[in-house]
Amino acid sequence: MTKLWIGNMAPGTTDETLREFVAKYAGNLECTAIQRVDGDGTRPAAILTFAGGDLESVPKLALRLNGMYWQGRKLMVSAT
Predict the structure, then answer these.
(1) What is the pTM of this model?
(2) Which one is the CATH code of 3-74: 3.40.50.450, 1.10.443.10, 3.30.70.330, 3.40.630.30?
């Protein structure tokens, strides 16, 4: 698994801010792409693609970030 879905981000969160946040917890994973998920704008989401690490790195990252409060929002995170 190399992708991570992050939902319920604060509106206006930039790709750079998102990369910096995830990098704090990603260890040896490198975020190579960010795809924004369309919605009604109240709970922005993105799919992040990673390189590096082993097969368990992204699911472990998802467990770490899921439910975390960031920028005043409780994140919903899962590995895809």
Answers:
(1) 0.92
(2) 3.30.70.330
